[in-house]
Specification:
mainly alpha, 164 residues, 5 helices
Length: 164
């Protein structure tokens, strides 16, 4: 489902709230993707470790005695599978991509918090006073977020409703 950026309306509070909802959707999407990529990394990493351990043990055992041809072929195929899985894990680089999604999610969470702060100050102070006090405060969009609460929130949601 393609989501479009909210368009400004005449009411500044409605516009800010629409952007807040947009930021919530984006931050949840990035956190969900980061979790999905972490799962994929583990799903590919565990077989790599298991097959590598089995192959190394089988090779060590075959050095101790003369093994049958079938065991040698099986060990060779398992060795090929371990190498292939390790190459795929390196190629897909799920961990790095997950970290990028986490950074994006944190940025969207920061934007959401700033929009909520904007709405509260606007409601409490009124437009004229707000314009005076916040005139040069637009660089907040680029400030790095400081919390990982969003990831914990999405993990909790995912335990109740698993990803597909």
């Amino acid at each position: 489902m393609a989501e479009t950026t909210p368009t400004p309306s005449g009411n500044i509070l409605q516009t800010a709230w629409a952007y807040r909802q947009f930021a919530i959707n984006k931050d949840n999407a990035h956190y969900s993707m980061a979790l999905r990529l972490e799962r994929r990394h583990k799903a590919l990493g565990v077989p790599v470790i298991v097959t590598s351990a089995v192959v190394s043990t089988a090779i060590f055992a075959s050095l101790q005695q003369n093994a049958a041809v079938g065991w040698k072929i099986a060990t060779g195929l398992l060795s090929l599978a371990a190498a292939t899985l390790a190459a795929l894990q390196t190629f897909f680089n799920y961990t790095s991509i997950a970290q990028k999604h986490l950074a994006s999610a944190r940025a969207w969470s920061s934007i959401r918090r700033r929009l909520e702060h904007f709405v509260l100050r606007y409601q409490l102070a009124g437009l004229d006073e707000f314009r005076k006090s916040e005139a040069g405060d637009l660089p907040w969009l680029c400030q790095p977020p400081s919390s990982e609460g969003g990831l914990r929130r999405v993990k909790k949601l995912r335990r109740a409703r698993p990803l597909g």
